[in-house]
Amino acid sequence: MSAQRVTVTYSGPIIFLSTDHWKQIYASLASQLPLRNLHWKSTSRNALRSIQELDVDLVALETLREDQAASQVPQTVLDKPLLNLYIFICEDSEAYRTQTRKQLKEWHASVSQRKNQEWLIVHVVRPDQSVAQGRLFQMKASVLDKVKADFNVDRKDRCVQLVWSADKDNPTVWADLVTKVKEGILSAFDAALTQREEEVKRSEGQRQMPGWNFCTFFILKESVANSLEGMNLYEDALQQYYELEATFFQVLREKNLSWFGALITPMATDDSAPLLSITKKPYRDLILANTISVFDFRVYLLARQCILLSKIGDMEELCRKASSFLSTFARTLREIEDTLPPFFIESWIYSSALSVVDQADEWAGSLQLDKAALASFNAAKGELVELARWQLDILGIATGFLPRKPPFSLALPSSLGEAAKVPDAKRASVSITNTELLAALEDQDALYDLYVNITNRAIELYASAGRRKFALKLHGTLAALDVHRGRMENALSTYTSLPAHYSPHGWTSLEAFMLNRALNIHEAAEKPKDREWIHVLLHFLRAYVEDMGRQLLMSEEDSAAYVQGLATQLKEAAQELDSETPFPDHPAFSLTLMEHNAKLAESRDGSLLKVVVQNKLPCEVSIDEVQLQLAGRENSRITFTSKASSLVPGPNELTLFCPSSPPGTYSLFSTQIATSRLLFQWKHTKTPKQVRAGNMPTLVHIPRDPKALDVKLKQPPRIELGTSRKVMVVLSAGRNEIATAAVKLGAPSGIAFSYDETEVVGEDAPPIRTDAEQVTFLDVKKGQTVVAAIPHSDASAYHYMKVNITVEYVTTSEPDIRRVLRLSRVVATSLPVAINVEDFFRGTRLFTAFTLSTTSHQHVRVRETQLLSQSESNGVKITRCMASKPSVVTITPSQPGRFLFQVDSVKGQARDGLKLQISYRMLREEVESLIEHAVYEVVVETPALEFLRQDMIDKLVQALETDASWVELYGVTGELVVPGVLTDDDELGAGLRRVLALLNTKRSPLSFGEWREILIPVDVPQMHITAAARLQILENPFSAGTEKSQKRTRPLYAGQPLSALLTVQTSFHWAPPEDVKVESYLMRYDIEDLSNDWLVSGRKRGDFVATDGATFTAPVTLIALHHGEVALPKVAVTALPIPGEHRMRSSVVPGCETHQVHGAEKVLVLPRGGRSTFFVSMGTNNNA
Amino acid sequence: MPPLRLNAVAFVSPQNHPILIRSFAQGQDELKYHYIAHTSLDVIDERISAAVASKSTECYMNLLYTMEDVAVYGYITPLKVKIIIALALTDSVVRDADVLTIFRALHTAYRHAVANPFLRLNAPIDGYNDHATVLQAGNGKWQTFRKRVDDIGKAVGVVGVTA
B5-157 adopts what CATH topology? Predict the structure, then answer.
């Protein structure tokens, strides 16, 4: 049915209508059409409807035949004109009154009677005329006013003036008229439509009455829809159809289908005709005749809706509606499938779906769709194409060209029983008409080609719509077709690539299905079971063990047996691998620790760890080895392994062994299950983020094995500064009889060890072998401890040296196991004491004072210090000052120790260096060895305590660590009172009590334990000149320098001049040997200026020549400035540069040390004579 | 009006992981419903982006698409768990209200199942607040949930949702 357009009639005086002027007006008026932007405020609809554009037919009133034979069939309300125009020119009111008015009256009479039509009188004036009129003094009403007065019966103004001339044709002059026209059309339309809707409503209300006919109602209602469509109100029109559809379903539900013919009366081309054509059958006539079939009716309804949708531009909804209709109505058709030609439904859906796509494309060609709309349009089209594809599946299965199994069988409607769709003879007389399908039914390849084409088309549409998952599904079916056609290569590549799309989101069911297919094809194609196959298989097993993977494997009768087969093949294939292939994080197995504490192997070195391997496969899996790695400090790794032959389904308990396991805490690093060359691996390290989230790493504690091989490092007991440093390596064999043990030391600080110069210390030393890399001990006996000193490069920059020890050892009992023990030890390199030296020269003697202070917070016990000369014969004689105390000196951080020595030497001899030997130990070491000693004594008494020995020691040491109150008492008395030890009444308690008693007794520190030694080389100091200056007050100016012993008889008074003698005795005794030849030096003395105490008169400063052993004297006079005990001024004696000798461009000053002989002397100065008055009380006068 | 028939139900996590897929149709291939659940996600994603654009907070996503003999409907819970049901296709109007009732029932069943505090027992700690991991952890132990869903499936067939 062609769309109805709005009709507007025009009329006017016949003379006027025949003028050229009218023709110009008409043309201009027509150019204003179509009307734009109409706003319809309907009385029955609450929202304002806007019509963008409205086509209007402008016809002469006469051409419309007024009284057509009124059809009983309701047409649209637009059949009749909505608006009648009367256009005239009348320039003066007289003419109007005489002629025009009459004509107008006639016209008005005929027009205004018509139902639901509006009228409008248009008075055309020339522009100049209106101007002229404006100029006149208007006594009379204008023509327009007259017209208005005559015809405007109600309030509505239906007269309009058009100021127009051919040469002034501009759109603005039309504005008034156009507005009026719009008003008129809308008002007429509204009235007409309201009336029609009333009728519809009335009819609908009578639905339950006898005699009501749905078809009649349909036509009536459709006329409303058509009217709306004619007004370009597509949404409203569509709404009418929706309402019709709803009513239809209601009628359908009431089973009141008497107005319809059969459900379907199949026509020859029904199955292949374009679905959305409303002209392929005379639908309206059929409806009017009440003979339309439900099929045709539904198709017609759908087509009308789709056409409206296409006009609205909602292509997506259009396609969706069509596809939904095809599916739903097909089900209805299935009920009477027996009466239809074979494959009628499939053919109908197939053809219709594709025709809808074509039609939609055609309609959409004129539309500008935005991206989102285009995508959804494509998606909807894709669905339609896919729908067509399903039909091919059904046909294929029915003809036997496709197998009856998934994914092809998915399309089979559930109602379709197992009975094959064999076209029976009765129905075969009529056949389907779609040529493509007919060809496909005949020819297998035609079907396949069609199948592939349609599928690809759908895939393309889905891809452009962004529906990846739909496309994937279709790819899957294409692969299935490839399989069926025997194109294994294609199918395999598709099936191996598809799972990757399903796995990321955990769609293991689909993934497993794809992988299963891939495996089967692989098998069928008899391809070699290579690495790729293993990967596919492993992925399959992964999907299989995950929960949902099993759901889709119904096809496998006995999945366990199937998996068993796969597992066996896996093992075989794994053997064929040319290299080790790791596969991370396979969920089929999992390895968990049963306990977090490893156990010692007891009988041999190493520890055992129990684990549970969970096998989630339903069958036994043969494996070779289970391995578990623990990570310790500084990236050290230890590996536990266990050979195992197979894993039964469910938990498997295994004990893993690690031959060399240093004690400590480790975190689980990785696990591995090896089957041939295939390695299942799991990493267990946690990222810092996980740890922060509370997901802690799994910890494993490995206990200390006291009987295992162990390596310790020590500082050598005797350290000699200046010689190469050594570190002692203590290797204790423990329970092992060691064949070879290669020790390698590495220091991260870059210290190099010279293994070549290794010395083995002690008796019964085993043979060693050294090379640049390591030192190897051979044949170490059980329980033996070997000590070797290895020199190393200078490490004095560090207080401590960190050494990584690697021991590789082989025991004689297990020659096959090469144990590698990695240990990290710290050994102190710095000395515990710091030494300061002070030298004091006194003539031919030298006093050397050593100050020892600890470098740490620890107390150092010094047993003895000795200053040793290389030999007695070199003229250096050392005397120990102070009779050395028998007891041990304790150096604390706050109290350094001083040790003084006197050195005498023969002049002029080359002096060899001296050595300071300090014999010391740390207080902690001493106390520990004391405790050990005491415990040992107790254990000797009661051997039963042997096994508690370490416990007792630990307990006591711990107690000492917590409290420092014992230190002082111990330092003074040597009694060790261990504070805060709680003793129980068991063996341990008894032992402890005994030990405590022993410790409580006084004991000389010299009687136990080892002492360390440091040898420090000390040079004999040298000095060119040693001077002894003396200021001596003489009895009188004339007395010569007197001996010290002479007692001064005269008192000294302040202000009194005192004669004094300055003497400087010089000695070259300690001059360096190379300068022994020098006879004299030029020197200068300078008496200190103590201006508060003394006035010095005389040669306060002077130069003199000093020779060895000579004494220079100079007299001075001193005046004491005040009385009291006053120290004499000091005398500074300095050497002057040696004239004429230069070194490095500066004069050479010989070294000189001066000591003040009178430094400690003080003189008593009495106050100057004068009078002093004293009052002495002579008693009291009682009478006064 | 013929009763609605529920052919399959699928619960999909916000990360598009399947939580539970149950099919009630007898003698049909499960694969079909796995496919349906999976492909529906595409359509749901389209709907979600459309809903975001229009700022709609509607849970019910209406008919997603029809396929041969099933009509697939979608529903997204406020926590973005997607529920997909496949109804047997009938040539009659399926009222949204009826479908919504089914969805509400399914949603309730899901909520009851997830409310089980012991679900989190085996969940890794770092994913404690992650819905999906909880669901994964509970996977395979959804017996009660499965039973509830099955009950709903049966009930839909029997009652047929009032006409």
Answer: Beta-Lactamase (3.30.450)
